[in-house]
Amino acid sequence: MSRLPDPIRDGLARGWRVAGGPHGPVPERLSCDVAIVGSGAGAGITAEILTKAGLEVLLIEEGPLRSSSDFNQLESEAYPTLYQESAARKTRDKAITILQGRCVGGSTTVNWTSSFRTPAATLDFWQSRFQLPEFGSDALAPYFEQAQRRLSIGPWQMPPNENNDLLRRGAARLGIATSSIQRNVKGCWNLGSCGMGCPTNAKQSMLVTTIPWALEHGARLLVETRAERFELANGRVTALVCAPASDRAGAKPTRILARHYVLAGGAINSPAVLLRSQAPDPHGRLGKRTFLHPVVLSAAHYDSQVRGWQGAPQSLYSDHFLETQPIDGPIGYKLEAPPVHPVIFASTVTGHGPSHAALLRQFPNTHVLIALMRDGFHEQSPGGSVQLRGDGSPELDYPLNDFVMDGARRALLSMMEIQFAAGARRVMPVHELAQPYGSWDEGRRALAALPMQPLLAKVVSAHVMGGCGVAGEPRLGVIRPDGVHWQLDNLSVHDGSLFPTSVGANPQLSIYGIVNRLAQALARRLGGGEAILA
Amino acid sequence: MRRRSWLKLGIGGAAVLVMGGGALALMEPGLQQGRLGPSGRLVFTHTGRALLDGSLPAQPGQLAVALEGLLDRIDALVAALPSHAQQELSQLLALLASGVGRRALAGLSPDWPAASTAEIQEALQAMRTSSLTLRRQAYQALHDIAGAAYFSDRSTWPLLGYPGPMTI
Fold first, then answer.
1. What spatial distance separates the first Cα and last Cα of chain A, rounded to whole Å?
2. B167 vs A: CB within 8 A
3. What ipTM does this complex have?
4. Same structural domain, A134 and A238
């Protein structure tokens, strides 16, 4: 256990107003100016700005409040407590595993700190296809700048770990450019355990920045409390009904009355709350166009140790395969080098028995690359749709069609070529029918013949976007350019679900920057004072 | 309800499902009170010894202890799953524990305790590469759960050359 100061436990001791779970019972009725569902990237930014503007804010988080004293760098503790569905959330056909946070701070508590502004090509596409003239790079720049200042987003000063540097070296030999990833850290210890919660509070997640600021200045937080549904009347939300997340029998629901409601539960849960509320959806857009940046993986073995668990998880990337082709052509992909730890490694490496055991024994010498496919920019990439199961829980149906799987094959080829160029002894695409291949020539021929099908090629995602898309016209989306729901006047959506396509980059800074602007406008609309992030 | 949610799992596995879904009500659930029941323990003991063969200790006494540890860790993993995932897993384990399900889904003739490790591995390999989505889904569920649970414990890390968390 970390012996470092824990700002969350200190704040609780000072009397922060937190209820739910171990923090005491939630009253049956609560009122506030603004009720915010969620506590991740969009919720945290919104909470700080609205609190600064003098509004009374109440946050409702389904997951627990955990903090640096709890973050033991152990997957066996982190996945069940900090992630949706124990880090094993799946799409409907089980072909994609989704990593998404479920704790105070949301995915920002467990992400790998990669910070990119929304790419200009993506914003251009949104402007022209979704009638969003407001979403220009220049117009958004000041909001990104504020978020970057507030969250200490800047260049990473330490040398990259070997897992990342192999990407740089291999790509360089092929004439492919790589660049540094900016990170939201302050005094980072370079441990590499970002995905299990930062034990040193260096990562400037919502958990240690905006949420504590809001709580310190009077905001309230309900934890282990699930937003079930909105009550609606006459084009407005009249109440938010919540229940304990533990499904305790006999537990009484809580009704929250607010002037305005902000939905920021993440891009599967936010559309699900609206679906459970039977929110108006005259153009059939709700829960549709949900994007994942579907990820394929390539593992390689080197003679020397890589120790992919150690050091800043993602510090270099390549956009070569995004920038050298049109955004609305065959699917492009971003290359990154992820952290690898035992549980995720053992469950992701394909195969069983002695061959699986042999791959696992290579763990310290294993290099992993990932390709994040930029979905949502082509008519054959409509993404997935969020549906409700019989028990009201959400399920994402994301068919991996030939258009996406063609990108998977090209991405696996690109990664293999880079890994051989970096000196790999063997490269193995993460695919049920693949073997470790000893040369680029052998691997290239084998990969060309592999069937690219769901549940054969391993596909994962850590970026869920869309489902409550923003658009300049009601027929094109769920929310207006100012974040307010097209049909519900006192409801806004402030999270990754507002993106009309995928971002084409790790989305946290896109959420921070865009929500920063939406929240400032909302503060003005609600009669609050002027407030900016930093 | 149970039949309906089972059917959702199997796009493309209609033949197996009609039989499996109908008989499922008569089978013992794989999970009981959110933990592995006898049928779940049976399936994970034997798929576990085949999936993790090469990582598990070879000496029989040590192997039995390691498999007990695996089942305990699967219990912990299962307890943290949401109820819809627990239900699906429970049904999968119920089906695999039954003779008819074991033959149809895993393609394994001998009963689990009687089957050799090589026979189970062969059955798993056929599931892994099957043209039926349901069989591939079942394989991946067993593979991912066994791998994640086994290597979540620090006693297994020397095998991986993983030093564990840093002291801070």
1. 33
2. no
3. 0.95
4. yes
